[in-house]
Amino acid sequence: MKILVVDDDCDQRHIRTLLLLRAGFEASEAGDATGAKAIATTEHPHAAVIDLRLPTVEDGIALIRDLKSLDPAMRLIVLTGANIHVLDARPERTLVDQLLVKPAPTADLIDALRGGVQDDPAVRPADVTGQTAH
User: Fold this and answer.
1) Please, are residues 3 and 48 in contact by the beta-carbon 8 Å criterion?
2) Measured over all CA atoms, what is the biggest interatomic distance in the chain, rounded to whole angstroms?
3) 15 within some domain
4) Across the chain, how many H-helices and E-strands are there?
């Protein structure tokens, strides 16, 4: 399963990416919305983990719209230290599959990512478990 990690904090981004790779996911990373859109266009990830502040909340909200317009089936997980309630009254909230507040346990992030693909026929079981089926 391909995951796009988007965070303007390079340390947070690298740590999340390494943890996802270790859990068996394929992972790419971007430090801003422009890079995220470029990767999404070429690599077609199944899901994106997005910090809401890139560096502003408006940048993160715009990225949510842009990623969903590129691929309506892409699962979007917002993992942020920003006030997640800023999305409550916004139409973009309906585009987000899960909201997690930093510092969210890695297990919660992995559960959020895997939860959306169990019934998706486009994703093989090996992609979900991170193991190759024999």
Assistant:
1) yes
2) 47
3) yes
4) 5, 5
In a domain, 53, yes or no: yes
Residue 123 maps to a domain? no
Please give the sequence-ordered ranges of beta strands (E in DSSP) within the chain, or none if there are none.
2-6, 26-30, 47-50, 75-80, 98-101
Asked if residue 129 is part of any domain, the answer here is no
Question: pLDDT (tens digit, 9 = 90+) per residue, 80-91?
Answer: 887 778 788 888
* CATH number of the domain to which 65 belongs: 3.40.50.2300
DSSP 80: E
How far apart are alpha carbons 37 and 8 in whole angstroms?
A: 14
Overall pTM surpassing 0.85 (yes/no): no
Domains contained in the chain, number: 1
For 10, 54, 107, 117, 133, the CA distances from 112, given in Å and listed in that order, are 22, 21, 9, 10, 22
Identify the domain containing residue 30 by its residue range. 2-115
